[in-house]
């Protein structure tokens, strides 16, 4: 059912669970994994001219680290890519290019909880993606576990 899974990552804490869920999905279906990180061009363009290259380099370093995290967590090979542009648009374009079956993303990014339910990038991906989107929220650490239908204690929730 799934041959190609794309994981969109910015290296934030909230995307770590999405990476794990996406890798588990890929393992279950023996799917190819692509990890993508997008350097937000609007952040670079909004910075003072004399700082733009330094900021671009810092954002690319962050993107490299985010992709390395996906590679480290994966059992198999991961194809990685860094793009620059508007994150949601670049992610959807990449999904088309690699003929992905699903794209996984966290619900909040590096800028934190600036939207009630989904971060603005995650929301745009959900609205514009040509393939299904697996949006995975980070569970809040509560110290308590929930009991699932089978009576097992579990804190896992998608």
UniProtKB/TrEMBL annotation:
Region (Disordered), start-end ranges: 139-158
SUPFAM superfamilies assigned: Adenine nucleotide alpha hydrolases-like
Residue ranges constituting the UspA domain according to the UniProt record: 1-137
Alphabetical list of CDD domains matching this protein: USP-like
Biased composition (Acidic residues): 143-158
Pfam families reported for this sequence: Usp (PF00582)
InterPro entries the UniProt entry points to: Rossmann-like_a/b/a_fold (IPR014729), Universal_stress_UspA (IPR006015), UspA (IPR006016)
Family statement: Belongs to the universal stress protein A family.
Protein name: Nucleotide-binding universal stress protein, UspA family
């Amino acid at each position: 059912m799934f041959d190609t899974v794309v994981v969109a990552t910015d290296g934030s804490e909230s995307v770590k669970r999405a990476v794990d869920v996406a890798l588990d999905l890929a393992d279950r279906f023996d799917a190819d994994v692509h990890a993508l990180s997008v350097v937000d061009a609007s952040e670079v363009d909004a910075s003072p001219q004399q700082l733009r290259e330094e900021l671009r380099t810092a954002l690319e370093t962050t993107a490299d680290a985010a992709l390395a995290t996906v590679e480290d967590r994966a059992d198999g090979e991961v194809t990685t890519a860094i793009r620059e542009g508007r994150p949601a648009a670049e992610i959807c374009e990449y999904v088309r290019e690699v003929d992905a079956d699903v794209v996984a993303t966290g619900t909040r990014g590096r800028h934190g909880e600036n939207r009630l339910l989904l971060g603005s990038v995650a929301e745009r991906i959900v609205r514009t993606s040509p393939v299904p989107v697996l949006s995975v929220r980070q569970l809040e650490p509560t110290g308590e576990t929930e009991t699932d239908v089978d009576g097992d204690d579990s804190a896992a929730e998608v």
